[in-house]
Amino acid sequence: MTAAVAPTSATAEPLLRLEDVDKHFGPVQALYHVNLDIPSGQVTALVGDNGAGKTVLTKTVSGIYQPDAGQVFWEGHPVHVRNARDASRLGIETVYQDLALADNLDIVQNMFLGRERVRGILLDEDNMERAAAETLASLRVTTVRSIRQPVASLSGGQRQSVAVAKAVMWNSKLVIMDEPTAALGVVQTRQVLDLIKRLRDRGLAVMVISHNLNDVFEVADRIAVMYLGRLVVQQDATKFDRQSVVEYMTTGGSSRSGGRAKES
Amino acid sequence: MAEPKRADPAAAVDLTAAPEVAEKEVPPALIAQSLGEYVRAWSSRIRSGESGVLPVIAAMVAILVVFTIWSPNHVFLSPVNLVNLFQQSAVVMVLAMGEGFALVLGEIDLSVGFVGACGAAITVQLVQPVTTRWPWWAAIIAGLAFCAVFGAIQGTLITRLRLPSFIVTLGGYLIANGLFLIILNFGPFSGFPLLAGSDANLQAIYNIMAGNIDPTLSWILAAVVVVGLGGFMWWADHRRRTSGLVAPPPSLTYIKIGVIAAVAVVVVAICNTNRASIGVLAGVPFVIPIVLVVLAAWTILLERTRYGRYVYAIGGNPEAARRAGINLPIVRTVAFMLCSVTAGIAMLLYASLLGGMSNNVQGGQYVLYAVAAAVIGGTSLMGGRGKALHGILGGLVIGGINNGMNLQGLRFEYQYIVTGLVLLAAVTIDALSRRGSSSGSVTRV
């Protein structure tokens, strides 16, 4: 499958750009001069060993942490994302690893949680149900049974799909996914990866955090590697091979000539 | 929204229920297109432990049959006893509807009995013609306002200081118990302010339980309620069907409307029978519409408003609710407030039933009955699941057991034991159905 949108040329402004972002927790430097570009219409995979700073970086983008230094640009303009609500307003939605779905609520109720449509003071259930069904259909998440079934009745891949659909409902431009395929079976992983490609084909920017290099090479257009709080390299996925990614992840550099890293 | 390219149809995600949960988790009304399908889906759900209100309905039928056969001259089924039973159960029903707010959040409120009793005692004191002479409505508002403040303080401690609700409301229970005794001792009533007397304000509160709606008016009101509710149900389904959404089969809606109409006819017919041995005592007691209004208000609040949706979301997954931008402390605090206010209404019914307030109020026991009634009715102790209706159903079961055993001349000790056994059965059913539905769910935060 090829990307519908051509990879952004080096001169075009990426959707999200981090410049020299620092973040520390007391004496611990979690992010050190991180420069990262997230272009639209591409899947950017963020990889790194445990403790490399992937999660901190994600939470900084989605407004849960504020950077201590550096600048965040959204569509070329400097922005301060102070909380998750600010992030949503810009069009940044995050799908966390635990998905944050309420088991006792149904699919529609989960997708609209916190942003329910009302008529007067009463919920407009029919309106929400139609909108949810439209979004699910556009992502080709079909509803053979019903979108009124409780989320407890769904499998892991289906839950992931619902969580993604929830994220793209709100005209989001950047969807961040934290380990979307962890804990999924083969078929369900397939479904989720296809879903990620569909998001990209719709022109969204997708940032995927993953440990699974199979998935990364399958789905990513660009790969960014973190090592001990630094973003050591980011470039087109085609310029990497598995070996070099592992090397960047474990040593922060590459002995191979194939990919000259854009050092940060 | 533009239809994306259909490049790879096999990759589409199908939201059929996961194979391991099969049919049991999916409410039958969502998938059935005909009544036959509905019955089949429903029975498979029951077999797999997801039984809904069926156990409590079965328990009510069992109570009815056993006590009717057993009671002397079958008086259990007599109109006078059935109306009594409802009046006695009303306190537990309303208390259980209040407790439901705490239970759906996954919390508990142990203070409801005495907090409600404080509110009722304030009301009874304020209407006394020899002391404060407040009009009945102002006295009721004052009593409920006390409950609201008490509930809000408890809720604030629980949510802002993150203290466990069990401990906070246990403290609240003792404090309210003390306050209750202090309130009773005001005025020249030796701790027993009564509702006896010809004063209009005393009568107004006394008649909540003792007063009846005129039989003809009872029929008219019942017809209005049935037509209104039935019309709304039919209209809601019709609108869903015409706008292309899946709706339950029409025959199911007609059956539901039929059941509601039948219940209304039976209740009004029973109440309109002359229940007095001398003179005439007939008509629907005021307490029935009062309980129904509380039921309707809390059902709409929980199931049709944003606030109710947030209560369920917090009960199901507080972390998901927090990330969705829901203000958890406010939703929780308001829930504890509503819980206490509802308790105030319940204990006002109690004061009306007793014709006054005294230090004999079994506040602690009423809390246990309220929790038991909600759970027997189908509310989960683990949070996230429960309806106002559950309090009504569970309250009828507990009231039925107590009433039947009273008729039998069995003393309190046996009533406690039987009620306890029914509660254990209800909790077991809740736990078993939870276990059945635990597959495929994420760990609760």
List the helices and strands and how they pair.
The complex is a heterodimer of chains A (264) and B (445).
Chain A: E1 16-25, E2 28-38, E3 43-48, H1 54-61, E4 69-74, E5 77-79, H2 84-90, E6 92-95, H3 107-111, E7 118-119, E8 122-123, H4 125-138, E9 141-142, H5 156-168, E10 174-178, H6 186-201, E11 205-209, H7 213-219, E12 222-227, E13 230-236, H8 242-251
Parallel strand pairs in A: 3-11, 3-12, 6-10, 10-11
Antiparallel strand pairs in A: 1-2, 1-4, 4-5, 7-8, 12-13
Chain B: E1 13-14, H1 28-31, H2 35-47, H3 54-70, H4 79-104, H5 112-126, H6 136-160, H7 165-184, H8 200-210, H9 215-242, H10 250-272, H11 287-304, H12 306-316, H13 318-323, H14 328-354, H15 363-377, H16 388-407, H17 412-436
Helix pairs in contact in B: 3-16, 4-11, 4-14, 4-15, 4-16, 5-6, 5-7, 5-14, 5-15, 6-7, 6-14, 8-14, 9-10, 11-12, 12-14, 15-16, 15-17, 16-17
Task: Quickly list its features.
heterodimer; A: 264 residues; alpha/beta; Rossmann fold; six-stranded mixed sheet; four-stranded antiparallel sheet; 8 helices; 30% helix; globular; disordered N terminus; disordered C terminus; B: 445 residues; mainly alpha; 17 helices; 68% helix; 0% strand
Explain how this protein is built.
The complex is a heterodimer of chains A (about 260) and B (about 450). Chain A has about 260 residues and is α/β, with parallel strands linked by helices. Chain A has a domain at about 15-100 and about 175-250: P-loop containing nucleotide triphosphate hydrolases (Rossmann fold). Chain A has helices at about 55-60, 85-90, 105-110, 125-140, 155-170, 185-200, 215-220, 240-250, and strands spanning about 15-25, 30-40, 45-50, 70-75, 75-80, 90-95, 120, 120-125, 140, 175-180, 205-210, 220-225, 230-235. Chain A is globular, with a radius of gyration of 19 Å. With about 450 residues, chain B is mainly α. Chain B has a domain at about 215-285. Chain B has helices at about 30, 35-45, 55-70, 80-105, 110-125, 135-160, 165-185, 200-210, 215-240, 250-270, 285-305, 305-315, 320-325, 330-355, 365-375, 390-405, 410-435; one strand spanning about 15. The longest helix of chain B has 28 residues, at about 215-240. The interface between A and B is large, with 60 and 57 residues.
